[in-house]
C-alpha cells in the first residue's frame, strides 16, 4: 500500500474508511482482498482497474449494495457491515449514486424523478400520497437548474438523450443533499463529447458542494484528466494510490499489468 | 455550467381527466343497470358459499366410477379430435393469413378478417345451433369445438409465421418448387414446435370448454354437469369440476414435457 | 432420433389417436345427410330473415351484457391488485406468500365461470347482479396472474437507484414500481373487458343476465328469426368493442 494522503485532503475529515475489507461472493470469487483505505471530504477520486479487478465492488461496498464478508467499512462515522436496515437507510441518505444506465423511472417526468431523491426524508404518509413539501420542490428545481435541464422538467424521462438522462440522475443525487457522491461507470454509455461534459460537471459540482466523489472509470485518459486522486485495483487489491496529476501511461500499465490498448482510451472531446 | 432557466408550463392532463370522467360515467350506469348492491351481496353470500361448500370432499367414489368415467372419456375424445383436425385445417389457412407467406395482400387481408370474424362467435352459441341441426350428442360438440380450435390455432400460428425468416422459403423458391412445397419445407420446419404447442393448448381449452358445451346438450361431461346441478347434487358437481381440473393439469404437464423434448 | 424415425413415430402415435377419438362421435351417414340440410335451413331462417321487430329487447339485453362486463371487469381490476402484489416473487423477502398467492390465483382462474354464475344465482337470485359477481371473481384470477408477472418483470435498475437513496420499500413501490406497471395494468384490464363482453353474453344462458338469457329462450322456442338477430347483434357488439379496446391499448403503450 502506498502513502494515502494528497495535498488537498491532508486536513479534511475522513468520510469513508475501509478497514481490512474483503468481499467474497458465494460462488467463491473474491472481489476485494483485505483493502484498507481512507477517503476524505472534498476529494475527487477515480478508481481504475481491469474488469473484475474490484472497482465496482469497492464503490458498492460504501453504500452496502454489496456487503463486506471480512473486515468493515466506516462511512460517515458508522460501521456499516452489520447495521440494521433502518440505520442503513439513514446512512444511505447522505450518499448519492449515479449509474452507467442512469436508472431513472422511465415513464415518470424529469421533475418527478428528481423529487424521488427526497423520498428518504419524507414521513411515510407523505411518501405514499406523493405529497412533497414546498421546500422539497424548491430544492428539486434548484438541482435541475444546477445541471442545466430545468426546461425539460415535465418531459418524460425516456424522451431525453443519454447525456440529459445522466444529468437528471445527477440532479436526483444532489436532491439528497449528500456528502458523498458515488459514480459507477457514469460515462460508459455516452459519446466522447458528452462524456467529457458530464465529467466536467461532476468535478465542478463536487468542488462547489465540497463532496467526496468516487468515480469508477475504465478510460485511462479520462482518469488522468479529471482525477485529484487515483486508486488502482488489480485482482481485488490496491496497487496504486496517488495524485492524478502527472500520471503516465506506464503507471497504468503497472495497474493493469498489461499494455494500454486503444479501447482503454475515451478520446478527446471535440471542443 | 448553467444559464438562467424558467420552470416550463405544466401541461394540463386533459386525456387523463376525460378518461376518468368517461370511466366514472360508465360505472355509474353499470351499477344502476345491474342493480349492484353491497347489502344484497352481504345477505346473499352465505348461500353462495353454501354452493361451494357443497362441492367439497368427501366425494362418494361410486359416482366417479359409475357415472363419471364414460362422459369424461367422451369429452376427451371430442376435445382431442376437434383440436387435431382443427389444427390440421388451421395450418394452410395460417399460411394465407400471414404477410410472409401469403401470395398477395388481398388474400392476406381477407383471410385475417375472416379469422377474426370466426373468433367472435361464442362457442356455446355455435354448439347450441349445431345441436339443433344435428341432434343432441357428441357430434355437434365436436363440430363446435372444431371451429373454435381452428380459429384459435390459426390466429396463433399466423402470428408466429409472421415472425419467420424468409430465407429458407426463398431458397426453395429459386429451385422452381410450388408454393405448397415451399411452405412444407421452408416454413413448416421453423414453426413445427409452435404448431404442436398450439395444438396441445387448443386440446386443453377444449377439455375445459366441453364441460360447458354439454349444458346445451353437445355431449360430454357437461351433460352430466347439467343434470347434477338440476338435482341440486352439489357434491357431484364438485367431483366433476375437480376431475376436469385434474385432467387439464395432466394435459398441461404432458404438453410441457412434449414441448421440452421437441425444442 | 433421426428425422425419419421421428416422423414415423409421430404417425404411429397420431393416426390411431385420431381414429379412436373420431370413433366416439357416433357419426352415422343419416345424421349427416339430415343434419346439413337442416343446418342450412336454420342458417337461412336466422340470417336471411332476422326478426328486426325484436330489436328493442335485444338492445336492452345487449346493454345489460355490456354493463355486466364493465362493472365486473372494473371490480376485478381493483381487487386483483393486492393478489398480484402478494403473488409477485420479487416484492416480499420469503418465497412463501408468492407460492400461496399463485396457487390461489390459479384455482380461481381455472374454476369454470359458469359454475361461478350458478353459485351467485343461488345467493343473489337470477339476473345481472349474479353475472357481475361471476365475471368479477373469474377475472380476479386472470388479472391477478398478469399483474404478478408484470411486477416480476420490472426494471431493476431504477429500484436499485432508489434503494441507494435510502428510500423505504413502500416508497420505492409507490414511486418506482407503480408508475412503471400502472399503464400496463390498465391495458390488461381493457383486454379483459374485451373478453368479458363475450363471456357475459354466454353466462346469461344459465340466468345470469344479459343477452345470453334471451338467447336461451329463443333457442328453446326454436324461433330462428329472433335467434338470428340476437347472434348478429352479439357478433357486431363484440367486434365494435374489440376495435375500440385495441385502439385505446395502442395509445397506452
Strand and helix map with partners:
The complex is a heterotrimer of chains A (about 270), B (about 260) and C (about 250).
Chain A: E1 14-24, E2 30-40, E3 44-48, H1 55-62, E4 70-75, E5 78-79, H2 85-93, E6 95-99, H3 110-115, H4 124-129, H5 134-146, H6 162-175, E7 180-184, H7 192-209, E8 212-216, H8 220-226, E9 229-234, E10 237-243, H9 249-256
Parallel strand pairs in A: 3-8, 3-9, 6-7, 7-8
Antiparallel strand pairs in A: 1-2, 1-4, 4-5, 9-10
Chain B: H1 14-34, H2 38-54, H3 61-96, H4 105-120, H5 123-134, H6 138-162, H7 167-174, H8 179-213, H9 221-230, H10 234-262
Chain C: H1 3-23, H2 29-47, H3 55-87, H4 96-110, H5 113-124, H6 128-152, H7 156-164, H8 169-203, H9 211-220, H10 224-252
Helix pairs in contact in C: 2-10, 3-4, 3-6, 3-8, 3-9, 3-10, 4-6, 5-6, 6-8, 7-8, 8-10, 9-10
Walk me through this protein's architecture.
The complex is a heterotrimer of chains A (271), B (263) and C (253). Chain A is an alpha/beta fold. Chain A has helices at 55-62, 85-93, 110-115, 124-129, 134-146, 162-175, 192-209, 220-226, 249-256; strands at residues 14-24, 30-40, 44-48, 70-75, 78-79, 95-99, 180-184, 212-216, 229-234, 237-243. In chain A, 33% of the residues lie in helices and 23% in strands. In chain A, α5 (134-146) crosses α6 (162-175). Chain B is globular, with a radius of gyration of 25 Å. Chain B is built from 10 helices and no strands. Chain C has 253 residues and is mainly α. In chain C, α3 (55-87) packs across α9 (211-220). Chain C starts with a helix and ends with a helix. Chains B and C meet through α1, α2, α3, α4 and α5 of B and α1, α2, α3, α5 and α6 of C.
Question: Helices and strands of chain A: which structural class?
Answer: alpha/beta
Give the rounded overall mean pLDDT of chain A. 89
**Cα-atom Rg of chain C, whole angstroms?**
24 Å
- From the spread of the alpha carbons, the general shape of chain A counts as globular
From the structure provided, what is the oligomeric state, counting identical versus distinct chains? heterotrimer
Task: Please summarize what this structure is.
The complex is a heterotrimer of chains A (271), B (263) and C (253). Chain A has 271 residues and is of the alpha/beta class.
Amino acid at each position: 500500500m502506498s502513502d494515502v494522503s494528497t495535498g488537498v485532503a491532508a486536513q479534511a475529515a475522513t468520510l469513508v474508511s475501509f478497514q481490512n475489507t474483503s468481499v467474497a461472493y458465494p460462488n467463491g470469487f473474491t472481489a476485494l482482498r483485505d483493502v484498507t483505505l481512507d477517503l476524505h471530504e472534498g476529494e475527487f477520486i477515480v478508481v481504475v482497474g481491469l474488469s473484475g479487478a474490484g472497482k465496482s465492488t469497492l464503490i458498492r461496498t460504501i453504500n452496502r449494495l454489496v456487503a463486506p464478508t471480512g473486515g468493515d467499512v466506516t462511512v460517515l462515522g458508522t460501521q456499516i457491515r452489520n447495521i440494521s436496515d433502518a440505520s442503513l437507510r439513514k446512512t444511505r441518505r447522505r450518499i448519492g449514486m449515479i449509474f452507467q444506465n442512469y436508472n431513472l423511472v422511465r415513464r415518470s417526468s424529469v421533475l418527478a424523478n428528481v423529487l424521488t431523491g427526497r423520498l428518504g426524508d419524507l414521513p411515510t404518509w407523505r411518501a405514499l400520497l406523493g405529497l412533497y413539501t414546498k421546500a422539497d420542490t424548491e430544492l428539486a428545481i434548484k438541482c435541475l437548474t444546477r445541471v442545466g435541464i430545468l426546461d425539460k422538467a415535465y418531459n418524460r424521462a425516456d424522451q431525453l438523450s443519454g447525456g440529459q438522462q445522466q444529468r437528471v440522475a445527477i440532479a436526483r443525487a444532489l436532491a439528497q443533499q449528500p456528502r458523498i457522491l458515488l459514480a459507477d461507470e457514469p460515462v460508459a454509455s455516452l459519446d466522447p463529447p458528452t462524456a467529457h461534459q458530464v465529467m466536467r460537471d461532476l468535478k465542478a459540482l463536487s468542488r462547489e458542494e465540497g463532496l467526496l466523489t468516487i468515480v469508477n472509470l475504465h478510460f485511462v485518459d479520462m482518469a488522468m484528466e479529471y482525477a485529484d486522486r487515483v486508486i488502482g485495483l488489480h485482482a481485488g487489491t490496491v496497487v496504486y494510490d496517488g495524485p492524478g496529476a502527472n500520471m503516465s501511461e506506464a503507471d497504468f500499465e503497472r495497474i493493469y499489468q498489461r499494455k494500454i490498448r486503444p479501447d482503454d482510451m475515451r478520446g478527446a472531446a471535440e471542443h | 455550467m448553467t444559464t438562467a432557466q424558467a420552470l416550463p408550463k405544466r401541461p394540463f392532463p386533459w386525456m387523463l381527466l376525460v378518461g376518468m370522467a368517461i370511466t366514472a360515467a360508465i360505472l355509474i350506469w353499470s351499477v344502476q343497470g345491474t342493480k349492484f348492491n353491497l347489502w344484497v351481496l352481504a345477505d346473499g353470500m352465505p348461500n353462495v358459499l353454501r354452493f361451494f361448500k357443497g362441492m367439497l370432499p368427501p366425494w362418494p367414489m361410486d359416482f366417479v366410477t359409475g357415472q363419471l368415467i364414460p362422459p369424461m372419456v367422451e369429452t376427451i375424445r371430442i376435445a382431442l379430435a376437434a383440436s387435431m383436425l382443427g389444427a390440421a385445417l388451421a395450418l394452410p389457412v395460417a399460411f394465407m393469413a400471414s404477410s410472409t407467406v401469403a401470395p398477395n395482400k388481398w388474400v392476406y387481408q381477407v383471410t385475417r378478417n375472416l379469422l377474426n370474424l370466426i373468433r367472435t362467435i361464442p362457442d356455446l352459441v355455435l354448439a347450441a345451433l349445431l345441436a339443433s341441426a344435428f341432434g343432441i350428442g357428441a357430434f355437434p360438440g365436436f363440430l363446435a369445438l372444431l371451429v373454435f380450435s381452428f380459429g384459435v390455432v390459426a390466429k396463433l400460428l399466423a402470428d408466429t409465421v409472421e415472425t419467420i425468416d424468409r430465407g429458407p422459403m426463398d431458397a426453395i423458391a429459386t429451385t422452381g418448387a410450388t408454393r405448397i412445397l415451399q411452405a412444407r419445407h421452408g416454413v413448416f420446419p421453423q414453426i413445427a414446435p409452435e404448431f404442436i404447442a398450439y395444438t396441445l393448448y387448443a386440446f386443453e381449452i377444449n377439455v375445459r370448454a366441453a364441460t360447458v358445451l354439454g349444458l346445451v346438450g353437445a355431449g360430454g361431461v357437461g351433460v352430466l354437469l347439467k343434470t347434477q346441478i338440476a338435482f341440486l347434487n352439489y357434491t357431484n358437481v364438485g367431483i366433476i369440476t375437480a376431475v376436469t381440473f385434474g385432467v387439464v393439469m395432466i394435459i398441461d404437464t404432458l404438453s410441457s414435457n412434449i414441448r421440452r423434448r421437441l425444442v | 432420433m433421426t428425422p425419419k424415425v421421428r416422423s414415423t413415430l409421430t404417425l404411429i402415435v397420431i393416426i390411431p389417436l385420431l381414429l379412436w377419438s373420431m370413433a366416439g362421435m357416433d357419426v352415422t351417414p343419416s345424421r349427416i345427410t339430415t343434419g346439413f340440410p337442416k343446418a342450412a335451413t336454420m342458417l337461412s331462417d336466422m340470417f336471411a330473415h332476422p326478426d328486426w321487430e325484436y330489436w328493442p329487447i335485444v338492445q336492452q339485453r345487449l346493454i345489460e351484457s355490456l354493463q355486466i362486463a364493465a362493472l365486473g371487469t372494473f371490480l376485478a381490476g381493483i381487487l386483483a391488485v393486492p393478489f398480484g402484489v402478494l403473488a409477485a416473487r420479487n416484492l416480499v423477502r420469503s418465497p412463501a406468500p408468492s407460492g400461496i398467492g399463485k396457487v390461489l390465483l390459479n384455482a380461481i382462474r381455472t374454476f369454470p365461470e359458469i359454475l361461478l354464475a350458478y353459485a351467485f344465482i343461488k345467493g343473489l337470485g337470477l339476473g345481472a347482479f349474479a353475472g357481475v359477481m361471476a365475471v368479477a371473481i373469474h377475472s380476479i384470477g386472470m388479472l391477478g396472474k398478469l399483474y404478478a408477472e408484470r411486477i416480476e418483470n420490472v426494471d431493476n435498475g431504477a429500484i436499485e437507484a432508489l434503494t441507494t437513496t435510502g428510500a423505504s420499500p413502500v416508497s420505492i413501490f409507490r414511486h418506482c414500481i407503480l408508475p412503471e406497471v400502472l399503464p400496463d395494468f390498465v391495458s390488461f384490464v381493457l383486454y379483459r373487458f374485451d373478453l368479458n363482453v363475450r363471456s357475459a353474453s354466454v353466462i346469461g344462458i344459465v340466468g345470469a343476465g344479459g343477452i345470453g338469457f334471451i338467447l336461451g329462450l329463443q333457442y328453446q322456442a326454436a324461433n330462428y328469426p329472433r335467434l338470428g338477430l340476437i347472434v348478429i347483434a352479439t357478433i357486431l357488439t363484440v367486434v365494435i368493442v374489440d376495435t375500440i379496446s385495441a385502439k385505446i391499448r395502442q395509445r397506452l403503450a
